[in-house]
Amino acid sequence: MPSGIRRRAAMRAGRDLHVNKRDVARKRAARKERQLRRALSANPVVAASWNAKETLAQNYRRLGLRAKLNGVAGGQEREFTTGEVQVWEKDEKTVRDPLLISNGGHLGAAVTKKEALGANEARIERDADGNVVRIVYGEARAYDESDDEEFSGFADSAADENKTEVVKELERLASLPVVSTPRVQSARENDWIGDLVEKYGDDFDAMVRDRKLNPFQQTAGDLRRRVKKWKKENNIA
User: From what superkingdom does this record's organism come (predicted)?
Assistant: First the structure.
């Protein structure tokens, strides 16, 4: 095959491949859109506060919900509060030098600045070769009977203050008792069972063999349950 023909065939194949990728991406986006519409129609509380100009993750974050139950796998920078930044800067002054620049030691070298040990805490000190020189213990904590107080549950007042109105409304709806609606026989089923009972009484085996009144060949056990419900709804002993 001449080179020009091969080149044109490769160009057509590449163009078809790009078209197929676009079609797949378009179908995937349409499927996600349908799933989102079904989810919103099923939950009017979330649908009322939904912003179509925001992404799913942005909407969930604003409403106080989580789009994923698992932890963040990447691509999202952690936001530190002022208190966390101060603690982080304090810890940076006390950790050992990982690159062995400041103290000329190795990974097990002593820290540049040592903090006072708290109650029931200990610190391992090593030499330049990484060998354990000694273990420094802090003061032992005195026994306090208040530690044995009975557990009364976690305080959730602070957590409730951070909840959004959408989360509170969803929790309220979830706490409502579930009312089961009993199944009622339709008028057509009522007439069908009535015809079977009028013709065969309680002979369910004969009902099964009747292909005209029982075209779907319901079993004897199924017909027995239907007849029992039919009698109860029509007050027939």
Answer: Eukaryota
